[in-house]
Structure formats: C-alpha cells, structure tokens
Amino acid sequence: MEQLSLYDFIQKEEDPLYQKLSSVTESTSMTVEAYHISINEAKFYEITSDDEHVAASDLEDCYNKLTSLLTTY
Fold this sequence. Notes:
The chain has 2 helices and 4 strands, in the order αββββα.
C-alpha cells in the first residue's frame, strides 16, 4: 500500500521540501536526511546517498523520486 502525503491533496508547491528543491542550482546543493541533492553539468538532478545514486530530469521528477525514497522503508 502506498503512503500518501498531505501534499498529494494540495499543491505540492506549498510543500517545504518542494520549495527547498526549487532553490537548488548548479552551484548549490542540499541534504535531506541521508540524501544529497545537486544539479550536475548536464542539468540533471542527482540524488545520492551511501546506497543510492538516482538521476532526475527536472524538479518534478526529482521531487517525486526523493519523496518516494523518503517514504520507502
């Protein structure tokens, strides 16, 4: 069964995580729990941890993949 978030029902632009992700640039990065998020030279978002290395094509894709990783046990 999939875990839902409050932001599944309201605009995700109101989600503080989405807002922080939208501020990441090629020269900045952020960390959420065990995940480090950055934008590489090819303009892909990279989500990395000791166990994961996931690429995302844009902000929406990054948000969806990161929230999935954060809610997976």
